[in-house]
C-alpha cells in the first residue's frame, strides 16, 4: 500500500515506508522483469528529449509501485549494512551479497534517472550537519552530480578504534526528521504502520505474492489514509522519547569529524600488522580512507523519511549491557 | 523410494530439556567406517557418539543383518573456547563450524575441528588398562614414605574401566583472517585444506607418532587489491575423494571452480568453472543471493558434484561445466517470499547437502524441521520431519507435505505456517549404510532404515 502520490522526492520517500498490515501489492512476483520500463513508462534515453520531459518521466517511474518497492529494498539493504553486530565480526558473505544488491539497485536507478532525482531531493531536504554518528555503507557513488550540494562535512564511522560498533544510528535534527533506527528484529514493538518489521510469522509484513491484485487496491486506499495520520503522530512521540534515550546512550561516543590523519608514531607501531586487517575493516564497517559523499545521500534519505523502525527501550537496555561488557574488556576487569 | 515404504527408527540420543544457544548443533560428521559420529555445537563442544556393536550371536537370533546398534555418547570435550581479537576488538566465536575425521591408521581416532579462525587436530584414544604397583607412589598418587619401602616391585597393567581420552595434538592458528567455512582432508591422508571467505590454505598433517611439520600456503586467494571491489566470496571447498591433486570450491555467485594443484602452486586460475547460465526470465534483485552456493560435496565415486543454493539442490557432472545435470526443487514455494526472507535474514541461511553411500540419493534440509530426500533415478523427492513431538522411537517416519495448491490433504502444512526458526542446516549420511544423522537446533536425530539397512 502506498499512500498518495507526491511530486517531490521527500514525499515519495515518506510513502515508501508507510505500509499497513493489510494486503499488499505483489512486491517481487515470480518472473518480474527487472526493467525500469513498467507498463506505461518509457525509457528515457534520448538526449534530444527536453529536461522537463525526462524528469517527468523519471518522476512517473518513481511513483510506480515497482520503484517504490525498489526503494524500500534499497533502504532495507542499507540498514542491514549499517548495523554491524557489536561484538562479533559480521558475516562477510552476507555483507557482500547485500552490498551487491545495493549496487544493483543503484545501477538500475542510475539508468532510469531516478537516482539523480532522489539525490536532488535529498539535497533539498538535508538536515543539519550536527548529527550524531553516521555509518558509511559499501556503496559506489556512480553519479557525480549527486555530490553537488552535499555538506562538505562527512560523517565518519564510529570506528573500530573505539572498540565497538554502533548498534543504533541516532539522528537528531528537526522534529519531523528525528529517527532512531535500531537493529532489525522481530521484537519490534508498538509499530502498526512502520516499515518492514512486524509480520505474520515473524517475517516481513509485505511483499508476498497475492493472487488477486484487484482486491488489494481497495484495501490499500483505505489503509493509506489511516496510515498517514496515525503513523506519523504516534511515531513522532515515540521517536522523541527514544531519540533522547539514544542520545544519552551515545552522547559520549559521537564522532563528528573524519578519522584523523595517520599518526606516524602509531603507523610505526602497527607497521608489521597485516594490512588486510584494515581492508577487512573497510568491508565490515564501510570505513574508507577517503570519505565519499555518495553514501551519505542514501543515509540521509533514510533520515528524511517519516517514521521508520523504532527502538524499544529494551534494546537500549541491551545496548547498555553490551557497552558495560565492552568497557569491562577494555578496562581488563 | 516410495513414500511410506521406508521404516525408520528414531533414536533420541542427545536431548535436552531446554534450548540454550550454546547447545545448538553446528556440524555433524560420521567417520569413515560410520562407527563414530561427531557433533559440534555453538558452545565449542564436540560430542562423539559410538555405535554399539551387538555380538554376532544376538544379531542372528534377531534376524537382522549386520550391525544395528544404537549410537551412544562415547566422549565429550571442549574443543574451542571463545576468544577475543584485540586488534579488531571483536569476539571470536567458539562455535564449531566443521568437523572432519581423518582416515584411521591405528587404534586411535583423529579428527579436525574448526571454529572461525583456528583448526585443531584431536586424538581420541581408549585406555582400558592402567599400571598399578608403582614403587614410589601409592595408589592415589601420593608419594610413599621411603622408609616403608622394603622391596622392589614391577608395576603391572591391570584392566580398568574404559576411558576415552581426547587430547589436542595440533593447533593450526593464525592461518585465516576471515571466517573458516570448510575443512577437507585429502585422500593422501597427509594434507588437508581449510577455506575462508577469500582464501584457501593447505596444511600438512604428520603421522600420529611423531611431531607434525606444518606447511601452509594460500593455494587460492581471491582477495582483491581493493576490498571495495569485493563482490564474490568463497563459500565452501572440498578435496576430490580419490584424486589428491583436485579440489573444488564454490562461491557466493553460484559458480564452482575445480582446481588442479599440479598446474600451479597458486590455484587462482581454475582448471574448470561450472556455472549455470542465468534465466533472464526469472531475474530479480534476489537472484544472486539465492544462487549463492552454501555447500558443495563430491559424490563418493568422484564423478559428480552436489551443490545447494537457497531454493535448489543441483547435481553436476565433472565433465560438463555448462550447467547441472539434475536440479531438485527443495522449497520452491519460498520463491514468492524472498523479500520477507531477505528482511529477516533467512535468505542467508546455509543449508548443507549430502550423498548416500551409493550416490543414488541426495538429501538436504529445509525449514519447519523438514528435510528432503531425492532419489536420483526416479527424480522423486520426499519430505521428512525431524521433530520430537510427531515421532516416536521405532516408529515409521511419516512423510510430510507443504501445501502449495491443488487438493489439500490432511497433514499438509501451509507455507504461512512454516516455522523459519526450525532450520535443518546440518546433516550426515553413514558412509555405507542407510543411517542418517540430522541436527535440528539442539537435538540430534538418528534415523535408520530397517527395511533396507544396506545400501543397494
From TrEMBL, chain A:
GO cellular component, as recorded: nucleus
Residue span of region Disordered: 29-51, 204-242
Q: Residue ranges of the SERTA domain?
A: 66-113
Under PROSITE patterns, the record lists: SERTA
Acidic residues bias locations = 207-235
**PANTHER family attached here?**
CELL DIVISION CYCLE ASSOCIATED PROTEIN 4/SERTA DOMAIN-CONTAINING PROTEIN 2 (PTHR16277), CELL DIVISION CYCLE-ASSOCIATED PROTEIN 4 (PTHR16277:SF6)
Protein name, per record: SERTA domain-containing protein
- Species name: Pleuronectes platessa
Automatic annotation (TrEMBL), chain B:
Q: Which UniProt keywords apply?
A: Repeat, WD repeat
Task: List the SMART domains.
Answer: WD40
Q: Kindly give the Pfam families that the UniProt entry links to this protein.
A: WD40
Q: Name one GO molecular function term.
A: protein phosphatase regulator activity
Q: Does the keyword Repeat apply?
A: yes
Q: Which GO terms describe its cellular component?
A: protein phosphatase type 2A complex
Q: Which Gene3D superfamilies match?
A: YVTN repeat-like/Quinoprotein amine dehydrogenase (2.130.10.10)
Q: Does the keyword Repeat apply?
A: yes
Its assembly, as annotated, is: PP2A consists of a common heterodimeric core enzyme, composed of a 36 kDa catalytic subunit (subunit C) and a 65 kDa constant regulatory subunit (PR65 or subunit A), that associates with a variety of regulatory subunits.
Name the PANTHER family for this protein.
PROTEIN PHOSPHATASE PP2A REGULATORY SUBUNIT B
Family, per the entry?
Belongs to the phosphatase 2A regulatory subunit B family.
Name the chain's protein.
Serine/threonine-protein phosphatase 2A 55 kDa regulatory subunit B
Species of the source: Pleuronectes platessa
**Classification of source organism:** Eukaryota, Metazoa, Chordata, Craniata, Vertebrata
Amino acid at each position: 500500500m502506498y499512500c498518495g502520490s507526491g511530486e517531490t522526492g521527500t514525499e515519495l520517500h515518506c510513502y515508501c515506508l508507510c505500509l499497513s498490515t493489510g494486503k499488499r501489492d505483489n512486491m517481487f512476483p515470480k518472473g518480474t522483469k527487472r526493467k525500469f520500463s513498467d507498463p506505461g513508462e518509457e525509457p528515457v534515453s534520448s538526449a534530444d528529449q527536453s529536461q522537463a520531459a525526462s524528469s517527468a518521466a523519471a518522476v512517473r517511474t518513481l511513483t510506480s509501485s515497482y520503484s517504490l518497492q525498489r526503494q524500500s529494498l534499497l533502504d532495507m539493504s542499507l540498514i542491514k549494512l549499517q548495523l554491524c553486530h557489536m561484538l562479533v565480526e559480521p558475516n562477510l558473505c552476507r555483507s557482500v551479497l547485500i552490498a551487491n544488491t545495493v549496487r544493483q539497485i543503484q545501477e538500475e536507478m542510475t539508468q532510469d534517472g531516478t537516482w539523480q532525482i532522489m539525490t536532488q531531493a535529498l539535497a533539498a531536504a538535508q538536515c543539519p550537519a550536527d548529527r550524531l554518528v553516521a555509518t558509511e555503507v559499501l556503496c559506489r557513488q556512480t553519479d557525480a552530480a549527486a555530490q553537488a550540494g552535499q555538506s562538505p562535512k562527512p560523517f565518519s564511522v564510529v570506528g573500530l578504534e573505539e572498540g565497538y560498533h554502533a548498534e543504533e544510528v541516532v539522528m537528531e535534527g528537526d522534529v519531523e526528521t528525528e529517527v532512531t533506527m535500531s537493529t532489525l528484529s522481530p521484537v519490534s514493538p508498538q509499530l502498526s504502520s512502520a516499515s518492514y518489521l512486524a509480520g505474520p510469522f515473524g517475517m516481513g509484513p509485505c511483499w508476498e505474492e497475492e493472487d488477486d491484485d484487484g482486491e488489494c487496491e481497495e484495501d490499500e486506499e483505505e489503509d493509506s489514509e489511516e496510515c498517514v495520520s496515525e503513523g506519523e503522530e504516534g511515531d513522532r512521540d515515540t521517536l522523541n522519547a527514544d531519540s533522547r534515550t539514544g542520545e544519552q546512550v551515545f552522547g559520549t561516543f559521537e564522532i563528528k569529524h573524519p578519522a584523523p590523519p595517520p599518526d606516524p608514531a602509531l603507523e610505526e607501531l602497527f607497521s608489521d600488522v597485516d594490512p588486510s586487517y584494515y581492508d577487512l575493516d573497510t568491508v565490515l564497517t564501510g570505513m574508507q580512507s577517503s570519505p565519499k559523499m555518495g553514501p551519505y545521500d542514501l543515509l540521509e534519505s533514510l533520515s528524511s523519511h517519516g517514521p521508520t523502525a523504532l527502538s524499544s527501550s529494551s534494546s537500549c537496555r541491551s545496548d547498555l549491557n553490551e557497552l558495560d561488557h565492552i568497557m569491562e574488556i577494555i578496562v581488563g576487569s | 523410494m516410495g513414500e511410506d515404504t521406508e521404516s525408520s527408527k528414531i533414536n533420541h540420543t542427545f536431548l535436552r530439556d531446554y534450548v540454550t544457544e550454546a547447545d545448538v548443533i553446528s556440524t555433524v560428521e560420521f567417520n569413515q567406517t560410520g562407527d563414530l559420529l561427531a557433533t559440534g555445537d555453538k558452545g565449542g563442544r564436540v560430542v562423539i557418539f559410538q555405535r554399539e556393536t551387538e555380538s554376532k550371536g544376538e544379531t542372528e537370533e534377531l534376524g537382522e543383518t549386520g550391525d544395528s546398534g544404537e549410537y551412544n555418547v562415547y566422549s565429550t570435550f571442549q574443543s574451542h573456547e571463545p576468544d577475543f581479537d584485540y586488534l579488531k576488538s571483536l569476539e571470536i566465536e567458539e562455535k564449531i563450524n566443521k568437523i572432519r575425521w581423518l582416515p584411521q591408521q591405528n587404534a586411535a581416532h583423529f579428527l579436525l575441528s574448526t571454529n572461525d579462525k583456528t583448526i585443531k587436530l584431536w586424538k581420541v584414544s581408549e585406555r582400558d588398562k592402567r599400571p598399578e604397583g608403582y614403587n614410589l607412589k601409592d595408589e592415589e598418587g601420593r608419594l610413599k614414605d621411603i622408609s616403608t619401602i622394603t622391596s622392589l616391585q614391577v608395576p603391572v597393567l591391570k584392566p580398568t574401566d574404559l576411558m576415552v581420552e581426547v587430547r589436542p595434538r595440533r593447533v593450526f592458528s593464525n592461518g585465516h583472517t576471515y571466517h573458516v567455512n570448510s575443512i577437507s582432508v585429502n585422500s593422501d591422508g597427509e594434507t588437508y585444506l581449510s577455506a575462508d571467505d577469500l582464501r584457501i590454505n593447505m596444511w600438512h598433517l604428520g603421522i600420529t607418532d611423531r611431531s607434525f611439520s606444518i606447511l601452509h600456503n594460500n593455494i587460492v586467494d581471491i582477495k582483491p587489491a581493493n576490498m571495495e571491489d569485493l563482490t564474490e566470496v568463497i563459500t565452501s571447498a572440498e578435496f576430490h575423494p580419490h584424486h589428491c591433486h583436485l579440489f573444488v570450491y564454490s562461491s557466493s555467485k553460484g559458480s564452482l571452480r575445480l582446481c588442479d594443484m599440479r598446474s600451479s602452486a597458486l590455484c587462482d586460475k581454475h582448471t574448470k568453472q561450472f556455472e549455470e547460465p542465468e534465466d533472464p526470465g526469472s531475474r530479480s534483485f534476489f537472484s544472486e543471493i539465492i544462487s549463492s552456493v552454501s555447500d558443495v560435496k563430491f559424490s563418493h565415486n568422484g564423478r559428480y558434484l552436489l551443490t545447494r543454493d537457497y531454493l535448489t539442490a543441483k547435481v553436476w557432472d565433472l565433465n560438463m561445466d555448462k550447467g547441472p545435470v539434475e536440479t531438485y526443487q527443495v522449497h520452491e514455494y519460498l520463491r514468492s517470499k524472498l523479500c520477507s526472507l531477505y528482511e529477516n535474514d533467512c535468505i542467508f541461511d546455509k543449508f548443507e547437502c549430502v550423498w548416500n553411500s551409493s550416490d543414488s540419493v541426495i538429501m538436504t534440509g529445509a525449514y519447519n524441521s523438514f528435510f528432503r530426500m531425492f532419489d536420483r533415478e526416479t527424480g522423486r523427492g520426499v519430505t521428512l520431519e525431524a521433530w520430537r513431538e510427531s515421532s516416536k522411537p521405532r516408529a515409521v517416519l511419516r512423510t510430510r507435505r507443504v501445501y502449495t495448491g491443488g487438493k489439500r490433504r490432511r497433514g499438509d502444512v501451509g507455507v504461512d505456517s512454516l516455522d523459519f526458526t526450525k532450520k535443518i542446516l546440518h546433516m550426515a549420511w553413514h558412509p555405507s549404510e542407510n543411517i542418517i544423522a540430522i541436527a535440528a537446533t539442539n537435538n540430534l536425530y538418528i534415523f535408520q532404515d530397517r527395511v533396507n539397512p544396506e545400501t543397494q
